Amino acid sequence: MINLTDLLRPIEGEPHVVIVLGKGGVGKTSTSILISSELSRLGRTLLVSFDPAKHILKYLDISKSAELFRVSDDFFVSQLDIEASAKELTSKYSNLIRDLFPSLSVLNLEDITKALKYAPGVEEEVFLNWLCDVYDMKDFRFVVVDTPPTGISLRTLTLPKLYLLWLEKLINIRERIVSLRYVIAKTLGREVKVSDPALIKLYEMRDRYSKVKEALTNPSRTSFVVVTNPEPLPMYELREVLKFLSEELATNHKLLVMNKVLPEDVAERLGTYEEQKALIDEFVSLPGRSVMIPYISNPPSKLEDILRLREVVVVVRGA
Ligand SMILES: Nc1ncnc2c1ncn2[C@@H]1O[C@H](COP(=O)(O)OP(=O)(O)OP(=O)(O)O)[C@@H](O)[C@H]1O
Ligand SMILES: [Mg+2]
Question: Which atom of ligand 1 is closest in space to residue 59's alpha carbon?
Fold first, then answer.
């Protein structure tokens, strides 16, 4: 039986975050559960799911989101409640704007908060906020992240870089405003306030996003696992994700997983043998560590079924 934890090394940073990416339905949740269970033998492990469909609850027979559940000794799981978190986040931001800029009372913040619920980008913001917190978790040695659909995940992972560009500009503008205000107050002989809450908040945000940007691109803090199937669309997304990791994050995957590989005779019967073979050949030629998991006739629906997949994992490339 193979040891998946060996394939995830180096895993020195604490907590070490394993982000599992891939097209919908390829087996991200199953792989995340498998990896979490393996890692939990080395230390306290949290598996957190951002999957809006909350499939993890079904696999682990859990009834509620958001709370922390203990699956076994050192294996914990949590399903993020995106809607509740989005609500919390938008009201937090409204309060922040109200506190920082009381003169903005002309804006109806209640209406803005309500409208934000349906605004594009809210899920990405919730995901990013949570990711920022993950790297500060002291209670876990490993955190495995079961991600939402690829588009949302990749957009989220680019946000720190984008935010930092905006923040530099905003900080620049705000610093100019604060220094002008200082000069004017001095000239008029008024009391001068040195600290500016808005500027402090901007510095805090810059610090938070710099840290997560650094952690995401640091292989000792973050491992990316990409899951695919021997089918055209999942393989297309695999290529897109690999391109994204190298071009946008300047990093590499730690492990590739090709799941649901059909036995040759079955593929032949289904008339997909040639197509599957070509995609497997491509997968095998990709650099870095990779494994394959065969298609099993009883699709895993419970924790025990998923853990049994470990017995059939085949290492394609171990180093
Ligand atoms: N090796 C396998 N053989 C057969 N069926 C599998 C295998 N791995 C996973 N499945 C089945 O495929 C389906 C999708 O698996 P899973 O939920 O892990 O994928 P996912 O990528 O997380 O999907 P989603 O994008 O919907 O969250 C499930 O019904 C699961 O039981
Ligand atoms: Mg899933």
Answer: 17
Question: Which amino acids bring their CB within 6 angstroms of ligand 1?
Answer: 22, 24-30, 51, 53, 55, 259-260, 293, 295-296, 299-301, 309
Q: Rounded to the nearest whole angstrom, what is the distance from the C-alpha of residue 57 to the centroid of ligand 1? A: 14
Quick check: 261 pLDDT over 80? yes
| 297 CA: nearest ligand 1 atom | 4
Same domain for 254 and 239, yes or no, is yes
Mean pLDDT of 185-208: 89
Residue 260 within a domain: yes
Q: Inform me whether the pLDDT recorded for 1 exceeds 60.
A: no
Q: Is residue 173 part of a domain?
A: no
- How many Cα neighbours within 13 Å face the side chain of 299? 8
**Phi then psi dihedrals of residue 169, to 5 deg:** -65, -45
Give 147-171 as a DSSP string.
-S-HHHHHHHHHHHHHHHHHHHHHH
Q: 221 and 92, same structural domain?
A: no
Q: Each residue of 66-89: pLDDT tens digit?
A: 678 999 999 999 998 888 888 888
Q: Are 13 and 109 found together in one domain?
A: no
Domains held by the chain: number: 2
CA of residue 170 to ligand 2 center, whole Å: 37
Give residue 292 CA to ligand 1 midpoint distance, Å: 14
Range of the domain at 135: 4-81+122-157+215-317
**pLDDT band for position 200 (50/70/90)?**
very high
